[in-house]
Amino acid sequence: GLHEKVAQDFVERFEGALGKGKGRRLYAFKVMMTKKLIKFNRDFENFKTACIPWEMKIKEVESHFGSSVASYFIFLRWMYGLNLILFGFMFGLVVMPEVLMGLPYGSIPRKTVPRSDQATEMDLSVLLDFGGYCQYSVLFYGYYNSDRTIGVLKFRLPLSYLLTSVGIFGYSLLVVIRMMARNADVGGDGGDDADFTFSWKMFTSWDYLIGNPETADNKYASITTSFKESIVDEQENQKDENIHLRRFCRVSANVLILCSLGGSGYLIYYVVKRSQDFAKMDPSSLSWFEKNEVEFVMSLLGLVCPPLFESIAELEDYHPRIALKWQLGRIFALFLGNLYTFLFALFDEVNGKLEEELSIKNSSEWALSQYYANYSAFYNTTVVPPPNVSPADVIRGPCWETAVGQEFVKLTVSDVEVTFLTILIGDFVRAFIVRFLNYCWCWDLEAGFPSYGEFDISGNVLGLVFNQGMIWMGAFYAPGLIGINVLRLLTSMYFQCWAVMACNVPHERVFKASKSNNFYMGLLLLVLFLSILPVIYTIMTMPPSFDCGPFSGQQKMYDVVMETINQDLPAFMGTIFSYASNPGLIMPAVSSATFIYNNDINSFLMIKVLHILCFQFAFFNSSMFSCPGLPSSHLFRQPCKYAISFYF
């Protein structure tokens, strides 16, 4: 009975193979197609992997330096993709409409180099400072026209400029939150299994489908690195330490680092004060160092302080993964102080430019009124033609928005230069000396000083995060800045991948990076919120320049939105907008949308905390959200009351 049933099932399954004629050929055809399909699926998976940008480069770095170093390059690749999309928004909705439908270069004063500067507009020294022709190009804010519509399509450039600039922040926020939710789902500490780690690695790590010698070498290095990572974790779990001595060392290390942060803050404050005094002097009497003192000191602190913090952190003897987070937090505090000190100095300069611009505006209006009065009296007519003046000869204001954009572009470019020079001198030259002079030196250069360099994960990650913060802030004043950053990230990927493979050695204590990169993303999210504040302050409170940029002629930059609502929409839409603009309604709506988008309760709780901070900001600055021309409401004047009721 049972044996007959098993035999019958076997015959039915392999009837084609056991039979003759068409049945056998059909079975052979099915087997062949199944194998072809399996091979096709495998090749397609390989093709998808090959289509991921720099995947093989990052895998090669990971096999030699571990997942901690590879996590930086994965983060760099993600940042490149984000900036590529942001560049598409800015280029497609702001730059291209102005180039294709706006007035050409040289047609109006804001698109023309002044006569006094035309002799040097293409000099290399001027272009390197982003003056001359660069200053009056699509790279900066001042080039864009303020006409309500441009071209035959009646494209509303000022409105598009404002909405695109704000939309960049909104899109970046959604993308960062989405990535944090995805990483939270992954979780874990990077281990393959919690139990029998070494046995699993010993007997299951090798990939028997490898047929390429180079791939086999990389896999061998990857397995070796993985064992080192697991050994470090096991040693940390079994370490027996003197808890009182450890606490004393950690407190001492934090005191030293706080003193370093305080000293760097005082140095920046002192240098900024000196730069304000230099700004009142004749530029020709200043040296190059005096002109660039602030940027030089900021770059110097960015180079000196991270290695100093890393040396002090040796006293703490944390697990490498925890030590990395402490190092990131300390460098974050350092860079944050540098960034906001730079902003304070910049807005002090803007206030001076606003006063200068007001005097130029008044004198220009007086001269124009005198021209019309004299012409009308001389020719006894009320039809007065506009003055026949070349755009290059028109007196113009300082255009403070372009000046701010120039500072952000110069700071970004100088950051690129410092980063690349640091790699060339600090890594390549150092490795060259160790490699070729070790045989004829008095001591072992590899084991002693200077030895090969290690890849600075914390410094590179924080540099990437704060550079992105400058891009978010500076893109409003310089629309071309995002394109510059795309080129920077592209060259950084190739240059740093080459440098780490050619000049660096793995860390002495290799450790596994968490599969969740939420610590990096958390820093990026915080920088994003800090980057929004100066831009919102500019849009809501600062008067735009009267003769340059898409918002010239407006009292405030956000007036273009009010103008669109009042002129193009029915009256009741203004009332609806006043209620919809209430932060007490916007924040819960954003929270709900974020929760639905992520479908992750951890992200929802995180957003609640962030929005409570936003409510405090909205309550403190509630006067900024008043909209001239729209009906006021009790709900609009009390954003915090209704926001808190949503949560409690």
From TrEMBL:
Signal peptide: none
Boundaries of every TMC domain copy: 399-514
Transmembrane region(s): 78-103, 124-144, 159-177, 251-272, 327-347, 470-491, 519-540, 576-597, 609-631
Coiled-coil boundaries: none
InterPro entries: TMC, TMC_dom
Compartments in which it is found: Membrane
GO CC annotation: plasma membrane
GO molecular function: mechanosensitive monoatomic ion channel activity
Pfam families the UniProt entry points to: TMC
Keywords noted in UniProt: Membrane, Transmembrane, Transmembrane helix
Lineage top rank: taxon: Eukaryota
Keyword Cytoplasm: no
Mode of membrane association: Multi-pass membrane protein
GO biological process terms held by the UniProt record: detection of mechanical stimulus involved in sensory perception of sound; vestibular reflex
Similarity comment: Belongs to the TMC family.
UniProt cross-references to PANTHER family, sorted A to Z: TRANSMEMBRANE CHANNEL-LIKE PROTEIN 2-B (PTHR23302:SF62), TRANSMEMBRANE CHANNEL-RELATED (PTHR23302)
Protein name, per record: Transmembrane channel-like protein
Origin organism lineage: Eukaryota, Metazoa, Chordata, Craniata, Vertebrata
Gene: TMC2
